[in-house]
Amino acid sequence: MAIELRQQLKLTQQLIMTPQLQMAIKLLQLSRLELVDTIRQELEENPTLEEVQETPEKNKENEPEEVSAASEEAREVTIEEKINDEIDWSNYIDEYNSPGKVNFESENREAPQYEAFVSSKESLSDHLLWQLLMLSPTDIEKQVGSLIIGNLNKDGYLQLSVEELCEQSGISIEMVEDVLETMQSFDPVGVCARDLRECLLLQANLLNLEDSLVTDIISDHLKNLENKNYKLICKALKVKLKDVIAAVNVIKALEPKPGRQFNEETPHYIIPDIYVYKSEGEFVIVLNDDGMPKLRVNPFYKRAITRKNEVSTNAKDYIREKMRSAAWLIRSIHQRQKTIYKVMESILKFQQDFFEKGVVHLKPMVLRDVAEDIGMHESTISRVTTNKYVHTPQGIYELKYFFNSSIKRVHGEDIASASVQAKIKKLIEGENPKKPYSDSKMAELLKTDNINIARRTVAKYREMMGILSSSKRKQF
Predict the structure, then answer these.
(1) How many CA atoms lie within 13 A of 209 on its CB side?
(2) Taking the mean position of all CA atoms in its chain, how far away is CA 174?
(3) What is the pLDDT of residues 64-79, one digit of tens each?
(4) Would you call 346 exposed, middle or buried from its count of C-beta atoms within 10 A (0-12, 13-18, 19+)?
(5) Where is this region: Disordered (predicted)?
(6) Residue 49 belongs to what H/E stretch?
(7) Which label site among 7, 155, 213, 405 has the fewest CB atoms less than 10 Å from its CB?
(8) What pTM, to 2 d.p., does this model score?
(9) What digits encode the pLDDT tens for the residues 254-296?
(10) Are 343 and 384 in contact (CB under 8 A)?
(11) Is 36 exposed, middle or buried (0-12, 13-18, 19+ CB in 10 A)?
(12) Element (H, E) at 297
């Protein structure tokens, strides 16, 4: 068989990830805050991209249409300045005749800009270090105290044992224990404890409850307290049930996480990307453009590349590349907003009952339903619905929330899993606190509502919503 070279024409189709497509996909999956950060970064890096500043109409009438280059030239600085006749010469002479320096403040002095100051919240470490220094500690005590403070978690618990502290500091156990005992009396009460039992005992001792039923329960029966097995506590301590309940109410008032009030985590507020509201009997979709920079290509650079000899060839190539990048960004942002609108429009069509009546009427839906409705791929719908939020008459929800698995009913249409969770939550809210519903009982009650699910499914949904079991929900 001879080997030879041949030329052959062949038609093929393949997907090429052009820069425009890459940018569009990248922007599509960004959240609102990430998109604003990306735009701000592009504004800093791309000189041809600029933000359109909106000015009031009344100011536009007074603005000149164009400022000539000649009028912007800086005036030459000269020394032919006249002396200000309003100078207070008496203060000037008195200042230089006085033995010390005298400062004269005018009434028109510039006041400090208080809005520029940012308040900082005191941390747990700073609060404890301040209390330690108030005791005028020795160098060794200061070293041990700083080591203890550095090994506290955000809840105020000590994460190292006394032996480990001794190994790291090279100081005797007696000294470490003395410093730790001193710091356990600091504010907030219960700080520097090594576990929950010690934390609660420190707070109980501060309330003068030593050798009481409260400390006995904390010391020996925390597990029974967690499971609300009060009868076993009564039997072990040989006390009445009402006394145990009174002690438990005291323990409930204690703080299990002393460092909680010094938590430095700042809340992240959700800004919806879309608003859906009802107007004249119909739902209206409005994209949220508040705070979103409005972009355009700087016209100065457009004119620059049309000039023949004033700009070099390399500069023109650079400007063209940046203008092309700016145009792609603007086009990708518009495409992103258009896609989000189409997806929300399709969701509104499928989940009309939810927007009208609430979560209980949420229908089962998957990404394929919306993808087929608007003619897009499922991966595109997944990117659009990730980290995007909508403000509805029922509250603020992530777009992913509307996609639920279906639960079979005995009769009638399938129901969404989120609707089943809402029904379970409603059953628990209406139960008798002294006799809460078990998972099996809730499964039976749901079956009367034409929802046939197993007990373990009820338990799974209950745990997903962060609801305790019936034994731990029981109140005496």
Answers:
(1) 19
(2) 44
(3) 443 333 333 334 433 3
(4) buried
(5) 46-74
(6) strand 49-51
(7) 7
(8) 0.65
(9) 999 999 888 877 777 888 999 998 888 889 999 988 878 888 8
(10) yes
(11) middle
(12) strand 295-297
